[in-house]
Amino acid sequence: MFKLLLLSSAVLSSQLPNADADFRQLKARLESYGFRVTIAIPPSFDLPNQQGDFLRRTVRKPYGVLNAASKSIWINPIVFELGNSNAVLIHEAVHAAQFCAGNGNIQTIGLDIEPIKQAQPYFKRYVDVHSQAVEKEAYAVQTQPDSYELARSLLDRHCQ
Ligand SMILES: [Zn+2]
User: Fold this and answer.
1) Within-domain flag for 69
2) Separation of CA 95 and ligand 1 centre (Å)
């Protein structure tokens, strides 16, 4: 009980629990391009339709969401516990670059890189071909060894 109290007060006292310098810098960069980045469980949006295998996943809140209408990004605080906060922010940064490239409509930016094979189920689950294409780009960047630099340069190229 005491431990639990300590833990929750630690989380409350810091807006970015366990966020490292890379995370903070990429977040600040997104904000400099006018995106609002909130560390909170994403509100329910009409997420793109996903196939049956992944229906179970739709019950769970996503790790990250970009809502184009409000130019807002939500990062689910659970990613700090899971240790994948940078990957999730990088993924959403690619969507932000796609948003800038499409002048407010998320569209593909034409990357000549492929996601790793293991990432295929994550974008192939989208029923809509457009969603599949934009997700494929986000996963392609996210799974590169230089994903951080790549996401940053895509942001600069399309949002500056
Ligand atoms: Zn995505």
Assistant:
1) yes
2) 7
Q: Coil, strand, or helix at residue 87?
A: helix
Residue 67: partners with Cβ closer than 8 Å, 6 or more residues away: 45, 73, 74
- Report how far ligand 1's centroid is from the alpha carbon of 148 (Å): 16
Q: Which whole-number Å values give the CA distances from 93 to 9, 55, 66, 82, 142, in the listed order?
A: 30, 25, 9, 19, 10
Place of tokens 């590169």: 144
Is 10 part of a structural domain of the chain?
no
For residue 2, tell me if it sits in a domain: no
CA of 15 to the centre of ligand 1 (A): 23
Domain that holds residue 67: 16-159
- In angstroms, the Cα distances linking 19 to 23, 33, 87, 153 are 6, 20, 12, 21
pLDDT digit string, tens, across residues 123-133? 888 888 889 99
Q: Residue 71 falls within a domain, yes or no?
A: yes
Which ranges of the chain have pLDDT less than 70?
A: 1-18, 45-60
CB proximity list for 40: less than 8 A, separation 6 or greater: 74, 75, 76, 77
The domain tally of the chain equals 1
